[in-house]
């Protein structure tokens, strides 16, 4: 038993020594990036999938749990693979050119995005749309900082909010098929299902009646 403990301590010391070696830093950073991508993807997707599945999906408990597990695995795997690819390409480019330049980030992320997120599925679609909204805000702020567009005299956020909500509800009412399925489900629950009830039970307690009278 003591020999096993000594061996474990020796192994931990060797691992810690390896982790302190600067020459291995780039490779180890790629591996930790893979780890962090997997953990973060699971943390983000699991609660989201849990809520959306039990709110909007039908089926048995086993089918729902399987759906949650699959969505969590896909998100976790994709994010881990993307971070691994991105950091690996960043390290490679920096080593080849002797320094890090802004184009390296764009090129590495483009390759990673193509390889990992190029498959058009619901998980990837949600991630890309999430990023797109942040990019638009970020580019707008950058354009103001660089002087490409003038600094607004008033906060433009109220106008942006009005236009976004106006557009999405117009699409939902008249071109619903263009919206992503999870958004359609959410908006159906909010705006369509609230038009239908039979008595106080499905007016206040439940969204829809499950019994047939």
Automatic annotation (TrEMBL):
Gene Ontology annotations for the cellular component aspect, listed alphabetically: peroxisomal membrane
Leader sequence segment: none
Lineage top rank: taxon: Eukaryota
PANTHER family: PEROXISOMAL MEMBRANE PROTEIN 4
The protein, known as: PXMP4 protein
Organism: Tricholaema leucomelas
Gene: Pxmp4
């Amino acid at each position: 038993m003591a020999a096993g403990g000594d061996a474990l301590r020796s192994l931990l010391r060797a691992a810690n020594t390896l982790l302190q070696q600067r020459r291995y830093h780039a490779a180890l950073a790629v591996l930790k990036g893979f780890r962090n991508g997997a953990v973060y993807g699971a943390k983000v997707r699991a609660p989201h999938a849990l809520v959306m599945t039990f709110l909007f999906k039908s089926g048995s408990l086993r089918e729902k749990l399987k759906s949650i597990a699959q969505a969590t695995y896909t998100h976790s795997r994709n994010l881990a693979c993307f971070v691994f690819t991105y950091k690996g390409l960043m390290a490679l480019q920096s080593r080849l050119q002797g320094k890090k330049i802004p184009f390296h980030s764009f090129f590495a992320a483009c390759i990673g995005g193509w390889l990992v997120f190029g498959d058009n599925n619901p998980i990837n679609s949600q991630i890309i749309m999430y990023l797109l909204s942040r990019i638009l805000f970020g580019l707008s702020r950058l354009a103001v900082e660089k002087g490409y567009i003038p600094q607004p005299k008033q906060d433009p956020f109220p106008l942006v909010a009005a236009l976004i909500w106006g557009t999405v509800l117009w699409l939902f009412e008249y071109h619903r098929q263009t919206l992503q399925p999870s958004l359609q489900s959410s908006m159906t629950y909010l705006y369509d299902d609230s038009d239908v009830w039979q008595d106080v039970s499905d007016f206040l307690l439940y969204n829809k009646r499950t019994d047939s009278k």
